[in-house]
Amino acid sequence: MGPVPTTELSPPAPPPTRRRRALPWAVLGLWLVVLVVAGAFAGKLADVQRDRAVDYLPNNADSTQVARIQDRLPGGESTDLVLVYHRDGGLTAADRASAARQVGEVAAGHRLTAQPQLVPSEDGTTLMYPVSSTEPGQDEEARDAFVRDVRATVDGGEGLSAEVGGPGALATDASEVYNSLDGPLLYTTVAVVAILLILIYRSPLLWMVPLVVAGVADVLSLAVTYGLNQAFDVTVSGQSSGVMTILVFGAGTDYALLIVSRYREELRRTPRPYDAMTTALRGCGPAIVASSGTVAAGMLCLLAADLNSSRGMGPTAAVGVLCALLAMTTLLPAILVLLGRRVFWPLIPAYGSEPRARRSLFAAMGSTAGRRPVGVLVSGAVVLGALALGSFALPGDLKQEDSFTSTPEAVAAMGTLGEAFPGTGTQPIAVIAPTDGADAALAEARGTEGVLSAERGRSGGGWTELSVVAKDAPQSPGETATITALRDALEGSYVGGPSAQQIDLEDTNARDTTIVVPLVLLSVLLILVALLRSLVAPLLLVVAVVAVWGAALGIGGLLFEPLGLEGTDPGLPLLSFVFLVALGVDYGIFLMHRMREESLAGAEPVAAALTALRTTGGVIASAGLVLAATFAVLTSMPMVQLVELGFVIAVGVLLDTFVVRTYLVTSASVLLKRKVWWPGALSRSPEDPVRAPKSVPEPAGRG
Fold it and tell me: pTM value?
C-alpha cells in the first residue's frame, strides 16, 4: 500500500525553523527595495535611446565622419526635407500658387540654410522643393518638432497631395515607430506568455507568479542598461531594448518552468515547501546557471562588432538574460515558498502522492530515435540541409523606404518622387572636403561619372560641405556606383548621407560576421566542454544549433517575399546566428546534462539518452514554445528588421525544440554511445568504476 497523501498543514515533519520563515520574507523585502530603486532609472532609458542611422554606424565609417563634421559646421547638423506636391491629372495654376505660398511660410517660420528652389517634373504632375535647416541641430526632439510643424504647414487640397519626405522626415517617422514599440511590445509579450502559462499550469494563480517576477526582472534590466549607457556610453537602440524585453520574458519564463517543474516533483517527496525548493534549486540550478551563462557569453561576443547597434545589443541582451536569471532563482522561489502548496490549486501536489501516469509523447519520439537512429539522423540532416538552401533566396538588402511594414508619409513621398522623376537622384550625397581643397574637390565631384550636379555649402573648422546629386535613384546600383567612385576620387574627403550610410551598414555587417561568428562558436564550445567534460558532446550540440540557424534562415528566404518583405536587413544573419546558437545550446545543455547524470548513475548509453529525452522533453518543449512565442511577438511590430529577426528566431527555436534536440541529437547520442563523452571518464568501458553523484539534477516533466 502506498503512502497516504497529506496536505501542507499536516506533514510528518518538524516545525519550521526561524531561518525557513525569515529567509523568503527577507528576499521579498530586498527585491521590493531593488524594484523601487530600479524603477527610478528604468523610465530614463527611453531618453538615451538613439535610432538615427549614423548612431548605428562604426566610428571610422565615412558617413559617421560626415555626420560628426556637419555637427561642427556653422548652424550644426542639418535636417534635410523634400516637400512634394502631386496631382495625378497634372498640376493646376492654383496648385502651383498654393505650393509656393506654403513653401514661403515654411521659409519665413524657420531658419533655413537656403531659399527652397522649385524642381518640377517633366510630366507636369509633381513639384519638388528641397528644404534644409540647421534649426533642430542634433536634438532629435527638436528635429521631430520641426518636421511636424512643416507637415502642419504643407497641406494639399481636393485632388492635390502634399507630402513631406527626405532624410529628416524619414528619421522622424522611424523615431515615432520605435518610440511606439515599448508599450505594444510589452503588452503583447505579457499577454502571450500569460496565455501559454495558463495552458501549461492549468491553475488560476500559479501562472501569475512567473509573469510578475519577469516583469520585475524587466524593470531591473532597463535600469541596469541605463546605467551601462551612462557609465560606458553603450549604444541603446529601439531594436536592442525591444529584444531585451523579449529575452527577459522568454528566457525568464523558461527558467521558471524548469524550477517550478522540479519544485512540484520535490513537493511530493518533501513535507516542507522550503526544503522542497532548496532541493529543487540544487537539482536544476547548476544547469540553469550554466545555460544562462552560455547565452550571456554568446551575446557579449557582439562587443567585438564594429557596428554600434550590434555592439550595443551584446551587453543589453546579456543584461536581460542575467537579470531574468537573478530574479527567477531568488524572487520566484521566495514567492512560491511563501504561497505554499496552495499556489498549485486545483492540482496541488500532496506530500507522499504519486504524479498521475500518462503517456509520454517524448518517450514515443525517443523510441523512434532509438530503433532507427541512422535513418532518423540521415533524414533529419537532409531536411535541414534542404531548408538551408532557401537562404540563397533571401531578398536583397533592405532599403530605407522598405524598413516599415506600413507606409509612413516620408516613404510615400519617396515613392511619389520615384514615379515623377524616374532614374533621377532626389536625395543629396553629402561630401565633406578640406576647405583648402574644396574647389578642387567640387570640380572633381562634378566630373565624376554618375553625378548630376554638385554645389558648395557651409564651411567651418577647416572643412567645407558639398551637396552632390546623383543621376540615379536613391539606393539604386547606379547611385551606389557613384558613391564608390566619389570615395575613390576624392582623396582626403569623406562621402556620407543616407545612401552612403546604408552602404557602410552593409559593409560593416559583413566584416562583423567574419569576426563575431567564430568568437561565438569558440566561447560556447569552451563553456560546453567545461560543463559536460567532453569534446564530442559539445561539438554535437554546436553543429546541431548551426544547422538550426541555417534551416531557419532558409525558411525565411522562402517566405519573406511572399509575406511582402521587400529586402533583408543586413544585420539579420549575424544577429539571428548569435541568438539561435546561444539559445539553442541553452536547451541542449538541459538534455545533455541530464544524459550525463543518467550515465553517472550507471545507466547504459542508449537508456541514458532515451531517459534524458523522456524526463526533460515536456518541460523543455513548454519552454521552447514560450520562447518561440515571445520572439514571434516581434513579427507584429511595424519595423521589417524586427519582423525578420523575430520570425527567424521563433522558427529556429521550434526546429531546435521539436526536431533537432528531440530526434537528431538523441539519435546521434544513441549511435555514438559512450563515445559521446570522449575523452572524459564516461567514455571508458563499463568496467571502469564511476562514482554516481549524491543527487541527480532533474528538470522533470512539464509543469
Answer: 0.84
